[in-house]
Structures are given as structure tokens and as C-alpha cells.
Amino acid sequence: MEENFNVFDFTLSDADMKKIAALNTNKTAFWSYEDPKVAEMFAVIGKQTGLD
């Protein structure tokens, strides 16, 4: 547990933060959230699992 708490003993520079921010392309590699068929699929899954 002690090692887990030591995860906060570092800092990120502005350059690091810019590199991380550049990774976000606002696109998914899995499915398009804007596709109505995908929304319908999640609605069906939600009903089937009781998560709706």
C-alpha cells in the first residue's frame, strides 16, 4: 500500500501536459457515438441488463 501512495510524488511539465492533450483527437477507435444505430444498440443493451 505504501508504494501505491507514492504515485503522487511527481509533477508534469507544461510540455508534458501539451503532449498528453495532443493525444485527444475527439475520435473513438471503437464506434461512433453520433451514429443512431450505435445509440439504439446501447439502448437495447440497457434494457436487456436493466441499466436503462
Q: What does this entry show, briefly?
A:
By secondary structure, this protein is mainly α.
Can you describe this structure?
Helices cover 52% and strands 0% of the residues. It has helices at 2-5, 14-22, 36-49. The protein is an all-alpha fold. The two termini are 37 Å apart. It is built from 3 helices and no strands. The model has no long low-confidence stretch (mean pLDDT 85). It is flat.
How are the elements arranged and paired?
Elements: H1 2-5, H2 14-22, H3 36-49
Radius of gyration, whole Å: 19 Å
Q: Describe the main β-sheet briefly.
A: none
C-alpha end-to-end distance: 37 Å
Beta-strand residue fraction = under 5%
How many helical stretches? 3
| Backbone structural class | mainly alpha
Give the fraction of residues assigned to helices. 40-55%
Helix and strand pattern = HHH
Which keywords apply here?
3 helices, mainly alpha, 52 residues
